[in-house]
Specification:
By secondary structure, the chain is α+β, with helices and mostly antiparallel strands. It is built from 8 helices and 4 strands; from the N terminus they run H-H-H-H-H-H-H-E-E-H-E-E.
């Protein structure tokens, strides 16, 4: 193993130690079984997502040994599922959905079973994915799929990415009748220096309380994904998320 690979491998496992602290905190918050902990959970999710992205984008590409790639990928899969489960929890809180004890308990059990899930379920999934990726035929098929998607994009048939879809879905669930995503046409440096997108939304009755609810829901969702958010007014949000423009 090269010096660079060892260096990044250490960074990955140091980050996993940090993640273990985060999932411990998340477990404590979920065990309260209270909507009042939603904001704290969202902040922990944002931190979790930020560290996972750091591993995926900066450290993981430097790892060449297959055994290590498998181990890392298995752990990451657990955390991505945890992120999905708790993002769904936040969404349910924001849309005032009833959450029963079984829902909380399923998340608690999921975190408690972390090691078992990683060693069995996620290791199996990661093994299949890595095998497929390094198989030439599968890789060629993947390249064809990507090429066809790029051609669709050139012809403007490319659909929104999942982040844009989720933002609009969350806004509509919270009462928005219109949601629009735009690129900034003027500087907003005082509010958010690295702004990449502007999200505006309206409700049919222009109810201020409803607009506030929409804004809070989008804010929590974006923060849970590790993005920064700033409010310019009740129905206009700035974010550093690089969203596709309408």
């Amino acid at each position: 193993m090269s010096y660079i690979e060892k260096k990044y491998l250490k960074k990955i496992y140091d980050t996993f130690d940090d993640l273990a602290g985060i999932d411990k905190k998340l477990l404590e918050l979920i065990e309260y079984k209270s909507f009042n902990k939603a904001d704290e959970i969202a902040k922990s999710l944002a931190n979790l997502n930020k560290k996972m992205n750091l591993i995926l984008r900066q450290y993981y590409p430097e790892i060449k040994e297959m055994d290590q790639k498998l181990k890392i990928k298995s752990i990451m899969k657990f955390y991505y599922d945890l992120l999905d489960k708790l993002t769904n929890f936040i969404r349910n809180v924001e849309t005032f959905q009833n959450i029963d004890d079984k829902y909380y308990q399923s998340i608690i059990e999921f975190i408690h079973e972390k090691e078992e899930l990683i060693d069995n379920k996620y290791k199996d999934i990661a093994t299949r994915e890595l095998t497929s990726f390094y198989d030439k035929k599968s890789r060629d098929n993947l390249e064809k799929i990507l090429e066809s998607k790029l051609k669709l994009r050139e012809h403007k048939y490319f659909t929104f990415g999942s982040l844009e879809e989720e933002i609009k879905k969350i806004a509509e669930l919270n009462g928005a009748s219109m949601v629009k995503i735009e690129k900034p046409s003027q500087p907003y440096s005082e509010k958010l220096p690295d702004i990449n997108a502007i999200i505006t939304f309206e409700s049919a009755d222009q109810n201020r309380e409803k607009l506030n609810q929409v804004g809070r829901a989008i804010n929590i969702y974006l923060q849970s994904k590790g993005y920064k958010v700033a409010f310019l007014n009740t129905n206009l949000i700035l974010t550093d998320a690089d969203l596709l423009e309408d």
